[in-house]
Records
---
Amino acid sequence: MNRGDVSNRLIFAYYVTGHGFGHATRVTEVVRNLIVAGHDVHVVTGAPDFVFTTEIQSPRLFLRKVLLDCGAVQADALTVDRLASLEKYYETAVAPRDSILKTEVEWLQSIKADLVVSDVVPVGCRAAADAGIRSVCVTNFSWDFIYAEYVMAAGYDHRSIVWQIAEDYSHCEFLIRLPGYCPMPAFRDVVDVPLVVRRLHKPRKEVRKELGIADDVKLVILNFGGQPAGWKLKEDSLPSGWLCLVCGSSENQVLPPNFIKLAIDVYTPDFIAASDCMLGKIGYGTVSEALAYKIPFVFVRRDYFNEEPFLRNMLEYYQGGVEMIRRDLLTGQWRPYLERAVMLKPCYEGGCNGGEVAARVLQDTAIGKNCASDKLSGARRLRDAIVLGFQLQRVPGREISIPEWYANAESEFGLLTGSQNAETNESSVFENSYIEDFEILHGDLLGLSDTMSFLKSLAELNTVYDSGKNAEKRQMRELMAAAGLFNWEEDIIVARAPGRLDVVGGIADYSGSLVLQMPIREACHVAIQMIHPSKQRLWKHAQARRRASSPVLQIVSYGSELSNRGPTFDMDLSDFMDGGQPMAYEKAKYYFAQDPSQKWAAYVAGTILVLMKELGVRFENSISMLVSSAVPEGKGVSSSASIEVASMSAIAAAHGLDISPRELALLCQKVENHVVGAPCGVMDQMASACGEANKLLAMVCQPAEVLGLVDIPSHIRFWGIDSGLRHSIGGADYGSVRIGTFMGREMIKSTASAKLSKSLSIANGANTDELEESAEPLEAEKSLEYLCNLSPHRYESQYAKILPEVMLGDTYLEKYVEHNDPVTIIDRKRNYGVKAAAKHPIYENFRVKAFKALLTSAASDDQLTALGELMYQCHHSYSACGLGADGTDKLVQLVQEAQNSKLSKSGDGTLYGAKITGGGSGGTICAIGRNCLRSTQQILQIQQRYKAATGYLPVVFEGSSPGAGKFGHLRIRRRLSHKQE
């Protein structure tokens, strides 16, 4: 790009986000090219001057120190504080929004800006629009994408922030999109450019010569952008003969002799290129420079930053990344990772001139050329937004809060590229139950094709070392780790547990309701091997930290790339001990929460701790586990329960424990409540452990009394339809509704106690004619343990009027002190819905009883209509509690439309009802219909209509399978001719 491209000098206003140096460094490269072309650039930033002036010394660079957003607030170098991020953004950009816009519009007009560029400050785009100036964003992610996950976790109080950011971005002309990009639905048009990378000032040899480091010395650069708090670097962290360059070290930090402190304003690219590998956290700057200079990158995951998996996939695709477990970073177990890194040969050959290309596009745009061509339709953007998990969530004042282009997306015919629904061909490979690779010493396959497939995948593990053809590159780490997991000369135990479809009962389980649950076809398999520590095959990083010959737990979890988590977990089993006793649950919860990328391991390893604490089990042998789940996460079909039940079933079988399915489910609930920290009831675990194929498990959750199995009549069928919205039982809304329910119960008990005292006082006055009501029901209600034991008529006549719609946590605690729920904590500053939350389980229990009775009545259209009506009532009760979602509402509406269509009314009818399931706030709906071909056709039509409206093709769950208790376990051994050499 040269000065001759334009005849006049242009003026650019470039807004830089306040999140870290990475944005400022890539902005520097674009700005440098604009200035080389002869233009003036005004940079609005909170970053230090040296970040820009080290690379650019020009009077055409103007730095204006203003911070207009805050990015993600980090508790430390690796931990993002989600709630603090939202609150800080509100303080920085929302509360003073009017004055910000006024100031920025006046400033933009005063400098006579030709174009506004943003990386990626939302309000900059809106200010440009108000000033009548075009704007362009340059980025690989946007803040609506990042904050969407924060809102899901922190509650809906800050949801308007996400919509405001999306609205601001929508004023942008187009997006200059960098490699490693995330879904960014707010932008209408896109121009892709190569990597934006800072150029080198000095060659490798010159940098090493200045440092006094020979060319053959292995050199790692520690590039964290701030080091974890309280972290001390250790001399023995490095392999012998290695040296480490440390960026961002504090002035008074004392480093070991093999660590070298770099100046705070050092030009980092030169030192990265002079190193043999880099150790740090993933960000656009570090990844782009590692790829450009072909430097292997040993990375540690950051929690709660959604940009990371996209950059990580790019890094690993070009064979430039090695993932380090966070605790190995903090404890100094670096050696196996560094030694692995220098064996890599990064192969990125793409362009690195993104700064020049982006500058040319910006220049052309400023002089009026049309640069964008890749127009994204509203439907495509809506699809992307659903992927983020917030688009169709219920929003108060939707017509005001949601950008117009989102609302209009349903009518657009653009790029409807919804998620592909994975098809399962049950008889694709196996038409009989004979598995030639393994000898089945115990158990029965029960003709389950998914179990046969799982055994086949086990048999193929020994081929992973020889060929990468069995999986995509991003899945190879899982397979390589699994291939080194088992000693094939020893027995392996296999357990299986299905997910569940919540037919009726749902969130009333924690209030003691009757529930009806159906185990689904999709299940989790766990293979486990308990073996003497001397025979266990250990990964290199596990070997590095092993204490003598102590037993070690190693877990591989397939599917990690789908949810941004580490594929492996390992720990010494002795870590579960604290002073000779199993550690407290609270300590265990903290232990697993330290590294969010490995928090998933709490669902698996937590079963071991619960067995230790509750049954006194002690584990002397090492444990290797492979977890493979076909139950999709975040869809409300109990993926977590299936993992817990399959894991505990496998461990119990391998250890020779005889645990009944009911007891096992109760133990698994303790895993989720106390180790994971999710406030769930027990119905999910009970359905997964005790259910049977094509039957409904009927259970009264007080705490877990199985009434029996209810046959699904042959003329009735249930389907699950996924809305595409991620559901989390640990989410703030599920928890807040649960708290509101327990608040309501305590208020009812308190009111009953007061009424009883008054009645007894009148009775003691000897004038029994003045008694307002019988004391017997009040006696029961003053000590009400389960809210579902209160009948609807008693609720309406005695308590409905005394329950407030909403109550502040502080107000409640002042009057009632406790809400007596052991798994939730009241936030004093938060308002909780009480009346709807308390009413729901009382009426839901009644609806489930009626539903169960109707299932056994004579088959008729009236029977199906009544069953469907009960499901519709349940769905609307969820919405009253605040657990609805626009996506699930849309699906229920489509079922209603199918039910009321001329085709259905002209015959016997096909579909009859539907409801949101489980914890609500997204996830899956359950639909009921006649068991016939036309019903299936209508379900598929609903699937396509939902895709046409949103761009997302929902997963349909149909079919059923046995629970873990019915399956039991398999004990298998590889046949001699198939042992891995």
---
Amino acid sequence: MVQVEEAENYKNKGNDAFKSEDYELALSLYNKAINITAKDSRDMATYLKNRAAAYLKLKEYEKTIKDCSEALDIIPEDPKAMFRRAQALENLERYEEAYRDAKTIFTVDPANKAIQPMLGRLHAIVEERARTAAQTSNKVDQMFKLAFEFTADNDKREKAMTNLLVLSKENAAAEVMLKNGIIHKIQQLVKNEKHPEIYINSIRVISQLCKGNVQRTISVINVVGVPWFLEIIDSDNEEIVNVAQYCLQTILNTFSGMDSNKETKPDKKLCEEHKSSIDTLLTCLTYSITNRVITGLARDAIIELIMRNCHYTTLNWSERFIEIRGLQRLLEVCSELEEYKYESAMNITPSSRTIAAACLAKIYENMYYDEARGKFNEQVDDFVKSKLLTPDLESKVRVTVAITSLLRGPLDVGNYVISKEGIIEMILVMAQTDDQLQQKTACECLIAAASKKDKAKAIITKGVDILKKLYTCKNDAVRVRALVGLCKIGSFGGDDASIRPFADGSTSKLADACRKFLINPAKDKDMRKWAAEGLSYLTLDADVKEKLVEDKAALNSLIELAKTGDQSCLYGVVTTLVNLCNAYDKQEIMPEMLELAKFAKHHIPEQHELDDPDFVNKRLTVLCKAGVTSGLVALAKTESHNSRELIARVFNAICSLQDLRGIVVQQGGAKVLIPMALEGTNTGKKQAAQALARIGITINPEVAFPGQRNLEVVRPLLALLHPDCTALENFEALMALCNLAGMNETTRNRILKEGGLSKIENYMYEDHVMLQRAATQCICNLVQSEEVIKTFEGNNDKTKFLTLLCQEEDIDTVMAASGALCVLTAANKTCCRKILDLDSWLESLRCLLANPNKEIQYRGTYLLYNIVKEDVDMAARVFETDVMEILMAITKLDDQECKRSKECAQKCLNAAEELGVIRKPDDKLPH
């Protein structure tokens, strides 16, 4: 009895809170009543109904339905429970179910007035949906007859399949298609389909059916099975491979709650629920990495899928990948040879080893504790030992190729392996043989090993003579690799003009040798790729930079290499471009430290005169006009974060010149910069975001970021409003955001949703004229939003601070602050009152009204009109001062530019007169 009374007490308090619209408190009290009440009692039904009402107000519709259903289990056909469930179902657009409940209520309680409008509304919706469903079913039937009839005209079949793809995006049509057996039909179609466009669109239909719908995805997999997806990805047609890869990613996203936006995080609850399905898919993909019969393109796509989903920010599958010996499979790909001297174990593309190395690096990133790294290294050791147990030359070659990939992927692991006893000696011995494949392989490994100055020095002492000897051999493939090794060693002084490991003139000779390989049309792409890598080291030398930029043939060849999009060319090409643009990090030398270094007789780096800004800007212009942006766009598809950072650096350097930003946009640069600004290294994201900001300052955002992109660019720009960013980065981001805020309400809402308002406002308080100006201009555009205006109504001094800014010396800041105040005071009387609550409000008004800038003067009169119109008290306060004399003076100005100010000043005087605050001199005093 005590518990019953206590529960009833909680319920009554909950009802009081509900009436006061404190729904969270009501919910808490109803929960307490439910927790101490017998499950099947009538009281429980009441408490559940009440809690459902609170959930309904809080828009927690699923929970509303659950509570109502439980209440109905206790008291069937209870009108209140059924009505609340119907409301929740309607809000979730589950109209047929809502209509069923509404009809039941009407049957039980025909006099219920609340249900009648709902019943009429739902009846119309359900009828319309039934009619649409019938039409949809007819459309689907027609398209089926055309698309899956192999004897029909291919053009008609292609159009029908395209229509099915469009229909699959509609939920009702997707259900009809599934019910009518589209999965079986597509499964049969892909076995014999010869028309690539029909084949590709049929796979896209599967992707669309699976997208965001777990039940449909399970239905698809139950029909075709996971191996079917591995069959369709096995193709030599790049477009087919891409759509199959996308389809598999869509399925993983559906099971995990992710989407195509790389910033989205998986839903832990969904991942746990579908853990088995996710694990099966990724395990099948892992086992397919070393499938001997699939195409190289399919293998690359499978590795990319593993790479995208293994990281702890996605499905966190790296440890499981290592557990099922996935590392060994990746290392097998890394050890594969494109040459046919040895029997090839599998098909690979020129990018396969690069992609596998990037995947190894991504997995190693997840090994954030010692035990996990130990397991990683242990499996790498096992692979190396298993290969070297066989004494034949092929095993040594394959191990060396794998070590090269490790040095290009998880560098720490590569260094760990190469430092093991006998490994570097084995590589040097291979380099000195007469076997060209061994020579090539050893050269590549030595190049990768000289990744740091200490390693470069070690190789100078051990291997430089060997590299020089190899450079004199007759085989071009060996020569170009030896050349790159010499280039790398010759560049370890970086851009310090005072350090030269080789004799004067040697760097230019090496660059000339690279150029010959690069521009020679008789040389294959592999040779040109290595020549580009050689230049990537030599172009730290300013003389080489200038010579290369002036060499149109070499520059065009470099850009054409980039446009191929070959990932194996990426490092050499992009690093060369970074060097040409001087887009690498430069150490700032403080004058005090310089003097100290001189005193201590330490080495002081010297900048070459050809690295002065004028020369750098000239190089940027030449590169951009030669079409470098198109090459960068082609290479930007890489999954390597470090490579994306290099690409972003080049883009940002080019965008530093205002005249080049239009070219970047025209050639698709803005499109690829957005994903680079959202995912990657911190530096890479910052560089890409700054490039976007620079584009957004100069070019109309509607042109630079059309459609959805103007929303996507908001987050990267806001990321630059951070204390760790430079003042220039802050300023450029504010300017770009200002332009975006002026576009439309949707974009302004996105800025607010991403927390942009408070970030922007912070810079209004900066003791930096440019930052304060840019932030105020941004706010001036943002106040066009009703949501922003509401923030100025609250208990804060934001309106007052804008009024204070009207006293600043910077004209542009005053213009923006007064513009924002004009909008605020026109929309809201509270803001008008806040201005007059400021002690120095009169000083601010005088600054505006007496300003020599005619636009600011007009804004001052407009602002004043908003304050005085229709409010006697405020008008009286204003006209107690000398404002009337200033306004009268403005009305007498003759300057044509003052026309708007004169008109507005007169409106102020007229408004005050109508309110009885002032009178004309000839007016009689009232009796």
---
Amino acid sequence: MSANQRPVLVLQPSVNTTTVTTTTTTTTTYAPIQLPPLPPPSPPQDPKAYPLLHANLPQSLRHFPLVFPNGSRAIFRDGDGGDEDMQEEQEVASGVGWRMLKRDEGSKDVAAVGLTEAVERYGKKRSHTSDDLMEGIEIPGSSSTVPPPRKKARAAPLPQISTVNAAAPPSPLPSPHGSPSPETIWPSAPPSGTSSPLPLAPIQPDLALTTLLTLPSLLSHFTALPPPLQSHFLLTLLRHSPLPVLRTLHSVLSPTLARDFLTLLPPELVSHILSYLPFSTLARASRVSRSWRAIVDSDPVLWRDLLKSTKIWFGGDSENAFASAINARRRYAQRTQPPIPNPLPLPHPYKMLFKSRHLTRTRWVNNPEPKHISFAAHGSSVVTCLLFSHSRIISASDDHSIHVYSPVTGELLRTLQGHDGGVWALAACKDTLVSGSTDRTVRIWDLATGRCTHIFGGHTSTVRCLSIVKPEVIEVERDGVITKEKWPKRPLIVTGSRDQSLRVWTLPRPGEAEFKCFGSEENEVDLAEVCDAEENPYHRLHLEGHDHAVRALAARGRTLVSGSYDCTVRIWDIITGTCKWVLLGHTQKVYSVVLDLGRNQACSGSMDGTVRVWNLQTGQCQHTLTGHTSLVGLLGLSPSYLVSAAADSTLRIWDPDTGELRHTLAAHTGAITCFQHDEFKVLSGSDGNLKMWNVRDGTVVRDLLTGITGVWQVVFEGRWCVAASNRNDSTVLDVWDFGTENDEDWIGEPAGGIYDDDIFSDDGEDDEDDPKIKALKMRSMDNDDDDQEQADIDAMDQDLVPSETDSVVELDLAHDRQGSQRRLEETDMEVSDSRRSADIEIDLSEGVGASRWAPTATITTTTATSSRSSQFGRSGKASAAAGPSRRSHLNAVPEASSSSSAARTLPNNDETPTKPRIRSHGSRRR
């Protein structure tokens, strides 16, 4: 109650009943009587020490009824707002010409009068009444009443009654029958300025009225007491209070005295306190209030320590990649979605990562019956590639087609037709899909529409492997100083082919100019007249150097690792096209490679049964991992584990830091045809079954598929797992959902930890490393200013221009081999039906010819000065040594003049993965 408000006592209208021959009921309303005002509270020096000073009393304590000893009723209202707080919207009973009045409706507009004025008015009224009747009191058996006074009672203003030292009610009024008892009558007064037709109703004081009158004095005494005595006094009162009173006080004291310690303590201390709670308690605490949710969800140190304490923190690289992907998604949502009013605080990515990994660790093991659907796909053809990207299943087959399915229903969403041969390489990035085929082309598809937007030609044999290189921050050494830079500046495509070379392309953005080397779909040209790759504005580099088919590649940042059937592994800089290292050591074909930028190393698996770990800085072989007895056709890498799968029906788990063998997974009965792993599990397919292993202890968790002919491919991400298998000469896709209804926000981590969110966001630095893209854009803009256009085209990035002193690497191998033209020494030994088992057959004849690579190469470094020319910038091409005993410039070199170039022709499309095409040396068409 504010200081300018005073409590009032509202008397219930008195009822006077007169019985004659009929009964007459008269209702008299009275003006509210103002009680003595409470002394205003003195402003405390420390408001925090008086939390109840301005607390709002409950409604039941601001408005309650009083009953006096003689049966008179009154209503106590605390302050002017009591009436408004208590008024409830009730339906009023009414009829034609009448309406029922609400309680106290007639006294709403009556001005309150003081207690002294009410007593004075009552004294004046008594002179008009009879001495042998008490005004307003009914006499039993009486048949008449005293008529009311004919004159209006004057409301003379009188000073308010003093309440100082008011230990008892004021002295009672004089009585015509002598001195009254202490319970004498206390009258009220009728409304000011109105005549009362009936006598006034009396009230008799009791403890309630006495307490109300003495409350100001009592409050003044209480505030003057010392705190210990105040506590003792209140505690004494509470000890004598019934349970309803204590409950009412508790409802006032509990919210007032409650303290949100998380919002009052320093953030460092809050984080330390919360670190002692298990994650289940933290999840419940985040639902207490918005402030608690903001504190719990936004604490990166808390969730990082929780990840570490539960042993699901894997070093920092994968965690930072997850956080960057989440932040990229949020930036995209801010640009594309309308803002949400008063949104809930967004959790830190580490909290989302903890939930994802916790669910991955528990659901895949503890969910005994995950949701499972099966559906036919690609007829009876082999599924050569399988992806799970952005809640889409993408499968490629040797039937020349690519299918897109829904993992929820198994519905075929799109069929991508266009390749003239089997599709053997696939990579996806959001709504962009890149495919490589035996028809020697690279196609780019828009998954949203199903259109083939680009066709890149240039390879002269099967495109066997490809990868999309996404921009990421890497460590780069310049002049002995290691700095962090983002490479590449925009996404690239790297393709490897059986024509013994690799090519680097710029990944076109959605909406950029389309390029199709075969012409438009409406006007197809003869496939024998394929245009040169140099005419493609998206082509960047042609990496030559391998002497046999390129079987596997891996690329990140600026580094590209390629493995070939020539038994070598090469390390390239995909920005400059420089071959940094030729890694010698394998004695037979290299079938698989992985790249580990965090440890600055690469790993390769070969037909010789070994896995080699190479140092990217020195080019030396750090570890040779032995144990497999047959072809190591598959390699997988996670932050803590290197997994190899071989044709000897086993998988082996290695420590990538030390090369130590941790576990041997030996439960399959045939060659391992596919597998994928993360930090918790390994899924492997072989003849007849698909198994799940615990990667940490090497035990079998469950069999997902049994009794089938074979498993072609398997992929998983987050809650989803997809497998392509063969059953009764039919290809079937199986999909498992290991999540529950409460796991809708389960965000999975992609294989390899490479995310494709917001990869096209850096608009300011995208095309500066490729002048041909600039030229294409300038032509599409139809700029009339030729001079300005030419100047923009000539503004080439340093990546494609050689330095003043280019490095030249000379390879002097022990076995000199002459000849100006390479020859393929032998054809691949893969089965012509292109089945997966063909990739793991052993070619015994290859080991003999491959022994020539055993001697260590002597590498001499010289320098050559080359001028920067626009002709070199246009070509953007790197050539490398094709055989031993030949001097080769491994960096980019100027291309020969166009007058001596001849057109390439594409022969009949009869090539398969087992029959590579011999490069022709005709004239190039310009």
